[in-house]
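Could you show me some protein's one-letter sequence and the numbers that encode its backbone in two labelled lines?

___
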Amino acid sequence: MSRGNKAQKAIGSARKQRSERRTYLIVCEGEKTEPNYFKEMRQHHRLSIAIEPVGTGYNTISLIDEAERLHTANNRIYEQVWCVFDKDDFPDQNFTNAIQKALSKGFRVAWSNESFELWYLLHYRFTTAHLPRSVVYTELSTHFGKKYDKNIVGLYKILLQNQKTAIQNADNLESTQTRDGKTPAQGNPWTLVHHLVKELLAQEIN
């Protein structure tokens, strides 16, 4: 094959790859913590996808409404829409309604009870004990060797070496809470962030 033909083949392959890129809309409750994590993940793994992690500052139901608005405004080009939000101190019914509304629209959810930072903590240990946000922050500060801050840069790389452990811990925690008959609103601690992480890792360019 001539150099010219090889070059044309390479260009064609690149175009095909770009055309096959999956598109994800990730709408986050937080404006910095969650968007920063997923942006760093995309960069580190050279993900073969287009991610738009939109930090909105919204909560529960209003977050789902914003996800629908963004999806519609972009002509529904996204193959998957993920809503990332926390239980926090919102009433159980609000949290439950948000989950049900998202699923009814075909969106996927990566919620956490009580906070997204539970996902970070699962990189270091497994637990089924009730975990208020303040306790999670204190433990993370110990692991990081400095006071935990939502705006820490490079956190994905810090956590990466324990990612498999975190996924396994999150899987086990989900199994435990489900087996015990807990609802998402009742199950503290509990997170589904690992499902989104696994979905994105599956799109990594080898």
About this structure: Confidence is low (pLDDT under 50) at residues 2-19. The longest strand covers residues 22-28.
